[in-house]
Design brief:
By secondary structure, the chain is an alpha+beta fold. A five-stranded antiparallel beta sheet has the order 1-2-3-4-5, covered by helices on one side. Strand 1 and strand 2 form a beta hairpin. Helix 1 crosses helix 2. The protein is elongated, with a radius of gyration of 15 Å. It starts with a helix and ends with a helix.
């Protein structure tokens, strides 16, 4: 359920690398085409248990002054944490739906 919830949560972003066996989802850079900032999200699964410690969300922010002059920095807690919370909330919903089907 964590895997499905993660894919659902970031479904608006293009995916760069998805490895179920490796336990990682990486998005491509996402942002306004004419904007100077883009973000990229990595989601790592440490366990298949529906627990906070089972998912690690790491984001990166790319800021470009011109197309060849970009800096990349880790995103702040205020971006990573809400994504993680949305994943966990969606995973709980999916888990309840799965149990109701049985």
């Amino acid at each position: 359920v964590l895997w499905r919830a993660s894919l659902d949560t970031i479904s608006f972003m293009p995916l760069s690398n998805v490895s179920y066996s490796g336990g990682i989802i990486t998005t491509d850079w996402y942002g306004n085409k004419n904007g100077k900032e883009q973000i990229k999200i990595n989601i790592r699964f440490l366990s298949d248990k529906l627990e906070t410690a089972s998912v690690v969300v790491t984001g990166f922010k790319k800021t470009c002054i011109v197309s060849d002059d970009c800096t990349i920095k880790p995103t702040e807690y205020n971006i990573n944490q809400p994504i993680k919370e949305k994943i966990l909330l969606k995973a709980r919903e999916l888990s309840l739906q799965d149990k109701a089907k049985k």
